[in-house]
Amino acid sequence: MNDVKKHDLVVIGAGPGGYAAAIRAAQLGLDTACVEKEPRLGGTCLRVGCIPSKALLESSEKFAEARHGLAAHGVQVEGATLDLAAMMARKDGIVAALTDGIAGLFKANKVTRYQGAARLDGPGRVMVGEQALQAERIIVATGSSAASLPGLDLDGDRIGDSTAALAWPAVPERLVVIGAGYIGLELGSVWARLGAQVTVVEYLDRILPGTDGEIARVALQLFRKQGLEFVLSAKVTGARVEGDKAVVSIEGREPLTADRVLVAVGRRPHTGGLNLESAGVALDARGFIRVDDRNLAAPGIWAVGDVVGGLLLAHKATDEGVAVAERMAGKAGHVDPAVIPAVCYTDPEIAGVGRTEEQLKVDGVPFRKGVMSFRSNGRAMALDRVEGRVKVLSHKQTDRILGVHVIGPRAGDLIAEAAAAMAFGASAEDIGRVCHAHPTLSEVVREAALAAHDRPLHG
Known about the structure:
This protein is about 30% helix and about 25% strand. The protein is of the alpha/beta class. Helix 1 (about 15-25) runs parallel beside helix 8 (about 315-330), helix 3 runs antiparallel to helix 4 and helix 3 (about 50-70) packs parallel to helix 6 (about 180-195).
């Protein structure tokens, strides 16, 4: 066995939560090490998740616009063709640049990197192969992986998860997507734009579970207009490869045959092989690490990101990692779980922060609702992106903003104003009284806030 290497902090996992925690801790003076089993840093998000999927979404949207959306602008494009290999190469280049960037940040901040699978070996001790690491502080940031369903024969080719769907060598003529959440709709949109006939199968009677119901209903209408087919209230009982096709079995319905199947039914925490029990770390009923409100899992051990549950989002993991590192250094690290935005990068984009209308009704919270369409917005008209709306929910007595939900152009950017407003305890009237540049899409957020008081200017 190699000599024991000592550090102030060892971070297990170099995804958004782990690498952010390592960098921030090093900046604050802790001798920090980070263990990652993959050759490239960045975790699922950078390697096979957020970043490559957004690259393909952008490229596929440009392809679809070149074929169908530019004539109204007076731009005639004839014979636009798809070079899928070039599109994939661009995606891979973006991933490489960002993962290399994290390696550079580790070097600049003097974070020691160990490559290999880590496991705990009692309190304060981490094993990476035969190398022992010792630290008074350990952060577990091992993330999550794609979940599956009983009866699905994932072969990684005809039937695969989101990682497989990011690298298919050809456009499938027919694609079945199992799951109508963010991942399924984003990747389903990519391949639909590139020419696939896409059918989305969802167990629930709606798409986008957890999203505001009104916004989800609008999204369903718009996706159907784009040619996506939906089979809702459908229980998938199996999927198998038959020759060069895949067959999806659905309870009480005829099976669906496709060239490829994307399984996008959620994610499960990465805790296997970590030997967590040796250090007193416990899991909940769903397999997530139990932590307190400061992300402490056991004496000297913290956990952040997907592995602790909640919203399985990269930016949530990043903020938790930074907050834990700052607390270790005596700073006031803080994350407000009630003000974490979520974005689905389809076209149009879908974004939300705070509580939905359905949640407020269940909780018996009195509220006002202001809704404004993009159709009367000058910037949206110039972009030829007028579908969608902004919805502002505020407390009926105090007017404090409780939730904001957007479907429309640049929704992922617009939601930042709402998150900032909520973080500072703003009211709907506060947003309505802030001068917004004209013409911008952000004016629709202001109009929706004004509509919560029945006084929109352009409603």
